[in-house]
């Protein structure tokens, strides 16, 4: 997920490590917030990721709670399992006056809670005196707004900015306005309750007097206001909390329930489910789309949404339907150089901040990815198999035809049978595959490849897309079209093997450059060729052995680049790091070719990694250093967490181990050589929808075998096992 070259999404200014400061992240719709462990937006946040953001703009860049002008001590900090509420317990340090202790440490307890709802952050403080005497003291909330575009927060320097306006202050509210160069008027409104003793542009001060065991509440509401939206009065905190809680409970959709014999694995599943629910965002007509990640990618991305939907398809097919609907509605209709758009192409990303609105960046609707279009077709075919929804497939078919036309024409401009990419706008993305940083595709000597570039996994995606399109065509009665597509896929597989296989590597080269010269680099990209099924059986065996070798496998997962390659760096974004979604797709490929022990090894490694991450999350990525005894993994300093396709990876990994496929048109649930690692004795799946039926079942590990036990089923569902 990048925004190209010197305007590259991977070029996040690193002044401090996000992974090291214990952030608390919440999101609702197009608003998200990143707080520190105490619930503040600290001074660190001014040059890091902390803040309250709305529609791509940071509306609050500083926010701190003080007792007698000093920071309280942190007792505990947590976020509820549903990612809804940040809860923090604080107490006072020793507070001095004239050389004497005025308030002893621990006399005051502060419970602080906050959540987001409809562009507002609702916060409540409960302050109680646990001392043995009456206490008189002041508390203060300091605040500030920079109205920075998300790209500015990430380190981009702008030639000019908008204008801060004059603050508007009443007895309990303050409005801090900003007029952007995009013509939009933005404002941050903070409302306090009760009325503070002092309120100005920097702070709100409250004078507090508490008897022994007495408690007081202070409330604050931060509103992100756009002049394009009606300035509505916020509802009460209690009403907002009740409504947001109700919608969270409704967000389950058609998820099945998964539980295992391993408590740590269950915690990982629960967090992944909560993260996905938080990132699912309601667009027009009630369509839900998984935003890519927080903080840098809290917006729709085509590739990320498609891969997230593929990973969760068996678990909750509604995500896939929402992704397909959203992207079909935004499929490019015309040729637009600035947007890297061509007819039939699928969206890469959408941005809503000031820099995009003002035309400084081309990402209002940007189409610079070569893989989103074949992945769209691939997901559409798999969704039909999973859901059996013929009417939806028929409605989607014209979009599939346009996407196929893009692949065969604009995607393959030189007519050599391979899809290439090359950006057409100077501010666009240079490398238009998932490893989209500008140094991720290179030759054996480290020299960067020149566009147009045919990258190996995109050819695999095209192969899989044409096979899935053939399935859809046949299902819809277009028999001749299905035959043509299958023939094209078979031809591509032969041609791919001839041009991309390198026996001395050994494996598939990462890409062909503009002169069709192979980039002879050992990269994890070749694992995606297993995922897509374009690899030969002999090639798959070689690749599986290579990817599980120490040059790739760190003990925590498979690196994006093998040790010893030019540009290898375990701390880089794409050239030696480890990405959970990359590992999940490779694991699906390993399972496809029968390498189940290797698949389980990947699952086990990532699960062990999550024991060392905040909230047991799979982060966007982490460093590729070798696993060391009695030490955890090395975290990447500016990785997004949560990240949709990372959270979704655990469902894909579990499916790959079980060899689970669902054919809704024939109401068939099939397990191909199910295999479970030693850490999982049982996996129980309940409420799994198959066509018009529902099934509950358990996978039970025995010595050298996994048994499948059907607990309950409704409808005419067949469950088959291939061992």
Key features of this structure:
single chain, 723 residues, alpha+beta, Beta-galactosidase, Chain A, domain 5, Glycosyltransferase, 3 domains, four-stranded antiparallel sheet, 33 strands
Can you describe this structure?
This protein has 723 residues and is of the alpha+beta class. The protein folds into three domains: 13-248, Beta-galactosidase, Chain A, domain 5 (Distorted Sandwich); 279-658, Glycosyltransferase (Alpha/alpha barrel), CATH 1.50.10; 669-722, no CATH class. The protein is 28% helix and 25% strand. The protein is built from 16 helices and 33 strands. Strands 6, 7, 10, 11, 13, 14, 15, 16 and 19 form a nine-stranded antiparallel sheet that branches. A four-stranded antiparallel sheet has the order 1-2-3-4, with no helix packed on it. Strand 26 (511-512) and strand 27 (518-519) form a beta hairpin. Helix 7 (372-387) runs parallel beside helix 9 (456-475), helix 9 packs antiparallel against helix 10 and helix 13 runs antiparallel to helix 14. It is globular, with a radius of gyration of 27 Å. The model is unreliable at 2-20 (pLDDT under 50).
Catalogue the unreliable spans. 2-20
Distance separating the two termini: 39 Å
Number of helices, where a helix is a run of at least 4 consecutive DSSP H or I residues: 16
* CATH topology term of the largest domain: Glycosyltransferase
> What integer is the average pLDDT?
93
Tell me what portion of residues adopts beta-strand conformation. 15-25%
């Amino acid at each position: 997920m990048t925004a190209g070259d010197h305007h590259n999404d991977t070029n996040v200014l690193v002044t401090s490590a996000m992974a090291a400061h214990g952030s608390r992240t919440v999101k609702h719709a197009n608003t998200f917030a990143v707080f520190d462990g105490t619930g503040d937006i600290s001074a660190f946040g001014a040059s890091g990721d902390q803040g309250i953001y709305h529609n791509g703009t940071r509306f609050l860049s500083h926010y701190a709670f003080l007792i007698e002008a000093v920071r309280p001590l942190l007792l505990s900090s947590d976020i509820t399992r549903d990612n809804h509420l940040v809860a923090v317990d604080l107490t006072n340090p020793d507070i001095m006056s004239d050389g004497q202790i005025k308030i002893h440490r621990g006399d005051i307890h502060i419970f602080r809670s906050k959540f987001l709802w409809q562009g507002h952050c609702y916060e409540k403080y409960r302050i109680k005196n646990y001392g043995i005497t009456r206490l008189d003291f002041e508390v203060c909330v300091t605040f500030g707004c920079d109205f920075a575009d998300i790209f500015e927060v990430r380190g981009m320097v702008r030639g000019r900015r908008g204008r801060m306006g004059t603050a508007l202050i009443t007895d309990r509210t303050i409005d801090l306005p900003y007029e952007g160069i995009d013509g939009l008027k933005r404002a941050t409104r903070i409302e306090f309750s009760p009325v503070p003793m002092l309120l100005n542009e920097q702070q709100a001060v409250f004078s507090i007097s508490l008897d022994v065991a007495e408690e007081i509440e202070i409330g604050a509401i931060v509103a992100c206001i756009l002049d394009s939206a009606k300035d509505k009065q916020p509802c009460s905190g209690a009403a907002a909390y009740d409504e947001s809680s109700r919608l969270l409970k409704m967000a389950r959709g058609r998820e099945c329930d998964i539980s295992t014999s391993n408590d740590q694995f269950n915690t990982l599943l629960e967090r992944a489910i909560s993260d996905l629910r938080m990132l699912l965002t309601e667009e027009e007509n009630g369509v839900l789309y998984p935003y890519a990640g927080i903080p840098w990618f809290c917006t729709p991305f085509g590739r990320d949404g498609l891969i997230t939907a593929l990973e969760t398809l068996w678990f909750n097919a509604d995500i896939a339907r929402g992704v397909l609907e959203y992207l079909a509605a935004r499929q490019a209709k015309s040729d637009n150089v600035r947007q890297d758009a061509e007819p039939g192409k699928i969206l890469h990303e959408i941005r809503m901040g000031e820099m995009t609105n003002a035309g400084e960046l081309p990402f209002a609707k940007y189409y610079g990815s070569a893989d989103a279009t074949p992945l769209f077709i691939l997901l559409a075919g798999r969704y039909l198999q999973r859901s059996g929804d013929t009417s939806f497939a028929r409605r989607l078919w014209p979009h599939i035809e346009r996407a196929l036309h893009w692949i065969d024409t604009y995607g393959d401009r030189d007519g050599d049978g391979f899809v290439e990419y090359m950006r057409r706008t100077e501010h666009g993305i240079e490398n238009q595959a998932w490893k989209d940083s500008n140094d991720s595709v290179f030759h054996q000597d480290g020299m960067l490849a020149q566009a147009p570039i045919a990258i190996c996994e995109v050819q695999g995606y095209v192969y899989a897309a044409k096979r899935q399109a053939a399935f859809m065509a046949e299902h819809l009665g277009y028999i001749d079209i299905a035959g043509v597509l299958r023939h094209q896929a078979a031809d591509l597989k032969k041609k791919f093997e001839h041009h991309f296989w390198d026996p001395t590597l050994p494996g598939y080269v990462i890409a062909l450059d503009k002169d069709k010269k192979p980039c002879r680099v050992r990269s994890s990209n070749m694992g995606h060729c297993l995922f897509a099924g374009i690899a030969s059986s002999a090639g798959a065996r070689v690749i599986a052995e290579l990817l599980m070798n120490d040059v790739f496998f760190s003990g925590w997962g498979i690196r994006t680049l093998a040790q010893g390659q030019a540009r290898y760096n375990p701390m880089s974004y794409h050239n030696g790091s480890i990405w959970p979604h990359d590992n999940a797709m490779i694991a699906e490929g390993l399972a496809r070719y029968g390498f189940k022990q290797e698949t389980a090894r990947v699952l086990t490694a990532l699960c062990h990694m999550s024991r060392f991450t905040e909230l047991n999350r799979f982060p966007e990525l982490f460093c590729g250093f070798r696993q060391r005894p009695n030490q955890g993994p090395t975290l990447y300093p500016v990785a997004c967490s949560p990240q949709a396709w990372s959270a979704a990876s655990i469902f894909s990994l579990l499916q790959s181990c079980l060899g689970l496929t669902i054919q809704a048109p024939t109401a068939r649930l099939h397990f191909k050589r199910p295999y479970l690692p030693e850490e999982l004795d049982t996996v129980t799946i309940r409420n799994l929808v198959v066509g018009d039926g529902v099934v509950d079942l358990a996978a039970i590990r025995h010595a050298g075998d996994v048994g499948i036990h059907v607990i309950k089923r409704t409808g005419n569902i067949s469950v088959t096992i291939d061992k």
